[in-house]
Design goal:
four-stranded antiparallel β-sheet, alpha+beta, 12 strands, 208 residues, 25% helix
Length: 208
C-alpha cells in the first residue's frame, strides 16, 4: 500500500505563516501615532514662534544700536522713553558713601547720585532695570548705574520695584561711580534694553 507523500514545512515557513498584525489593526497604536503627531506639530509651532520672537528682538536691538538717544521732553518737564517718563528731582555729586549701616557702599572714585521720579505711562507692566541706565561725561565716556549702591541710596531703599505696573509712580536713585575730577554731561535712560533711550542733560561742575 502506497503511503501519501508527507509535506515537510521548514521552521522559516512556519514563522512566515503566522499572521503579524500591523499598527493599523491596533486602535491603541493608531491613537498613540496621532498623539505623537499632534505633539510634534505643537512643538514645531512653538519653536517657530520663539525663533520669530528672538529674530524680532535681535532686529530691534541691531536697529537701535545705531540710533542715538534723543532728548524728548514733555511740557511737564518729563523725559520719555517708551513707557517710562523720567523726572530729575535732585543731584548730589562728590558723594563718598551711600546707604545705612550695615548696607553702606563706597566708590572707587566718587559717587554722583541722581534722584529720579519714574512714571509708567503705558498700558503694560515694565521691568525697571538699573543696568539699562547710563551716564556720559563731557568726553563721551559711558558709565552704568551701580545696582547695589542705587538701591541703597533710593528713598525706598531695598523696596525699589523691579516690575512697574501701568500708571505706577516710584522714586529711585541712580548712583554712578566715576573718577575724581570727572564732570557728567547727561543721563541716558531706557525703559528696556532694546529701546533707543532718552538723553537728559545734567551738566554740573566736577566738584559739585
Amino acid at each position: 500500500m502506497t503511503q501519501p507523500a508527507s509535506t515537510v514545512i521548514s521552521v522559516e515557513e512556519q514563522v512566515e505563516s503566522i499572521p503579524t498584525p500591523g499598527l493599523a489593526s491596533h486602535p491603541g497604536c493608531r491613537s498613540f501615532a496621532i498623539f505623537a503627531g499632534v505633539c510634534a506639530l505643537i512643538v514645531g509651532l512653538a519653536f517657530s514662534a520663539v525663533a520669530g520672537w528672538l529674530l524680532q528682538q535681535h532686529s530691534h536691538h541691531a536697529t537701535g544700536a545705531d540710533s542715538k538717544p534723543q532728548t524728548r521732553q514733555t511740557r511737564s518737564g518729563d523725559f520719555v522713553d517708551g513707557q517710562f517718563a523720567f523726572r530729575l528731582n535732585s543731584v548730589r555729586c562728590g558723594v563718598t558713601e551711600v546707604g545705612m549701616s550695615p548696607d553702606v557702599h563706597k566708590p572707587q572714585g566718587k559717587y554722583c547720585v541722581y534722584i529720579l521720579g519714574i512714571h509708567n505711562i503705558g498700558e503694560q507692566p515694565r521691568v525697571l532695570t538699573f543696568s539699562n541706565q547710563h551716564a556720559m561725561d563731557v568726553h563721551g565716556h559711558v558709565y552704568t548705574a551701580d545696582l547695589l549702591a542705587s538701591k541703597a541710596a533710593s528713598p525706598t531703599r531695598n523696596r525699589v520695584p523691579d516690575l512697574m505696573w501701568s500708571n505706577q509712580v516710584t522714586t529711585v536713585a541712580l548712583v554712578f561711580d566715576i573718577p575724581l575730577g570727572t564732570s557728567l554731561a547727561s543721563l541716558e535712560l531706557h525703559d528696556s534694553p532694546w529701546s533707543d533711550g532718552v538723553k537728559m542733560p545734567v551738566a554740573h561742575s566736577p566738584d559739585s
